[in-house]
Specification:
globular; six-stranded mixed β-sheet; 401 residues; 8 helices; 2 domains; alpha+beta; Elongation Factor Tu (Ef-tu), domain 3; 20 strands; Gyrase A, domain 2
């Protein structure tokens, strides 16, 4: 027994993904963070190097900690349609849909991606564990829900050369694969499921395989991408890419309803800009009555995009209606300087009537300069939340780069 294997489990409480040995070998700054009970890489070398691999070449990100549920049974479609706000009946086999689900007050419990892998077989992927909520929601349905997180290894292959990397690695059937579609192939002799999905807003894919085949899939992708600039990336680079793409992160941009202790801290799909995910024509779903009432009233607040003057990120900034800071109208949830867009961007939860595109507000930014804090009031403008949307993300077939 090796020294690593002999360490008692209580001295090593976080699980290691099937790619951990490969990730540990590439880690130069020893920066690991917990995610859903696993230890994962925050930064391998530097955020800048990893970010530009996502935007200019190809990147490899370990998705294994993404919580995965297998939902099967005669009532699986009906159960899921009762659970989520969009119409699952419209989801064809081998397709993927982004969705949210709510409590009776219409507040978002969580979001995730739903894969339809057969007539009555689905895979629901979430950032955090939801088995209790799913089990309670399944009462009365002939359905089986099983967590399969530890059985499936997953890698996100993202960036403009991601298609070329997968093709060079021998993955077939990707030429006609459109966004949110699923294909089945082999890679280095391993069976893989490839979905054209991702969290970067760029051209990209997610590769799903067995735990036993994980390392050889990683090795084959790294070898195929060596001449195409492939790089393993951590969570911090991905966080910058998802902000540019307009994607929200739970516990950052919104607090899941079941974790909100104080009144008024839950958020509805309309407040998060997810009105397009709510289908009132499909029949009843959890939270429908509350969301119908909200739709009938004028919006009180909404998560919007901000274009902030200057180049200092407005992280955790309070937002005011005027430069003198006399009336607070919101706060920033995510912010960064975008290297690709060359803009100072942010998400902010704003109160009405400052929600319309083009509205001007003021951000209160604090800068630490040589251990001295400086306060600045900076003008910001409400913009569309998707800051970066290259044509290549939807091109089918993608360009060979």
């Amino acid at each position: 027994m090796s020294e690593v294997e002999s360490v008692p489990h209580f001295l090593k409480p976080l699980l290691e993904t099937p790619f951990h040995r490969r990730a540990r070998a590439l880690s130069q700054v020893d920066s690991f963070v917990p995610w859903a009970g696993y230890t994962t890489v925050d930064v391998f070398t530097s955020v800048e190097q990893e970010y530009f691999a996502i935007r200019n070449a190809a990147s490899l990100y370990d998705l294994t900690p993404m919580v995965k549920y297998r939902v099967t049974g005669p009532d699986a479609p009906a159960f899921l349609n009762r659970l989520v706000t969009r119409d699952v009946a419209k989801l064809a086999p081998d397709r993927v849909a982004y969705c949210v689900w709510c409590n009776e007050a219409g507040h978002v419990v969580d979001d995730g991606t739903l894969f339809r892998l057969g007539a009555a077989e689905y895979r629901l992927c979430t950032a955090q564990r939801q088995l209790d909520w799913l089990g309670a929601s399944a009462i009365g349905f002939d359905v089986e829900i099983e967590e399969i997180t530890e059985r499936i290894a997953a890698l996100a292959v993202q960036g403009p050369t991601s298609f070329a990397v997968l093709r060079a690695a021998g993955v077939a059937g990707l030429d006609g694969l459109k966004p949110f579609q699923v294909a089945y192939s082999t890679l280095a002799g391993a069976e893989v499921t490839v979905s054209r999905t991702g969290f970067t807003g760029d051209l990209g894919y997610e590769v799903w395989t067995s735990v036993q085949d994980a390392e050889r899939v990683w090795d084959a992708l790294m070898a195929a991408g060596r001449t195409r600039g492939i790089r393993a990336v951590g969570s911090r680079a991905l966080d910058l890419a998802r902000l540019e793409a307009g994607f929200l992160s739970p516990y950052v941009d919104f607090l899941p309803a079941e974790h909100a202790v104080r009144t008024g801290r839950g958020r509805t799909p309309f407040e998060l800009g997810f009105g397009w995910l709510v289908d009132f024509d499909k029949g009843h779903f959890t939270g429908r009555r509350a969301l119908l009432a909200e739709r009938a009233a004028a919006p009180r607040r909404m998560l919007v995009g901000l274009d902030v003057e200057g180049n200092k990120p407005a992280r955790s900034a309070l937002i005011y209606a005027d430069r003198r800071g006399r009336r607070e109208v919101g706060s920033v949830t995510s912010a960064a300087w975008s290297p690709t867009c060359k803009r100072n961007i942010a998400f902010a939860m704003l109160e009405a009537p400052h929600l319309r595109t083009g509205a001007a507000v003021w951000a209160e930014i604090y800068l630490n300069r040589e251990l001295v804090w400086e306060r600045r009031m900076v003008r910001a403008r409400v913009v569309e939340r998707q800051f970066f949307a290259p044509e290549r993300r939807r091109a089918t077939p993608p360009a060979e780069r």
